[in-house]
Amino acid sequence: MQYIGKIDKEKYKLITKDISTEEVILTDKQVEHIKERHKGDYEQYFKHIKEIVENPDYIIRDTKPNTGFLLKEFIEENKTFQLILRLHTSKDNKEYKNSIITFLKVGKKKYNQYLRNKEIVWKRLDNDE
Predict the structure, then answer these.
(1) What is the mean pLDDT of residues 21-48?
(2) I want to staple 59 with a disulfide (CB 3.0 to 4.6 A). Which of 40, 80, 103, 122 is the partner?
(3) For residue range 56-74, what is the model confidence (pLDDT) as tens digits?
(4) Contact 70, 83 (CB under 8 A)
């Protein structure tokens, strides 16, 4: 298990008000999932995970409960990413934390499609699209 960083609960309150911790982790099981399903993304782009978690450009409501879909663009690298974050609530095992479900690089077309077709619950103020 890896400690990734902390979320700002205020940004996620439209997904659930019942967020019991700010801490975000990435389990070994999910690292394996990312490595198997999104070849090379973990090895090449892991350096961006903390920034995506702590400073997403957009938070979108996922179809699963208590789960946020984070989008982040790194303009200087011309790369766009998505990260699925399961938020820990008071009903969850006390030993768990907010946990990254998956992470991958996505194309700009797919990124923009998410913005058009999904429910955005929070966005950075300087994203004037």
Answers:
(1) 96
(2) 122
(3) 999 999 999 999 999 999 9
(4) yes
DSSP, residue by residue, 62-128: -SSTTEEEEEEEEGGGTEEEEEEEEPP-TTS-TT--EEEEEEEEE-HHHHHHHHHHS-EEEE-TT--
Neighbours of 48 (CB within 10 A): 18
Q: How confident is the model at residue 129 (pLDDT cuts 50, 70, 90)?
A: very low
Q: What is the pLDDT of residue 119?
A: 95
CB atoms within 10 A of CB 119: 11
DSSP 8-state assignment for residue 20: -
65 vs 6: CA distance, rounded Å = 20
pLDDT at 103 over 50: yes
Q: How is the beta sheet containing 98-106 ordered, strand by strand?
A: 2-6, 23-26, 98-106, 79-86, 67-74, 58-61, 120-123
Whether the CB-CB separation of 15 and 22 falls below 8 Å is answered with no
Residue type for position 21: T
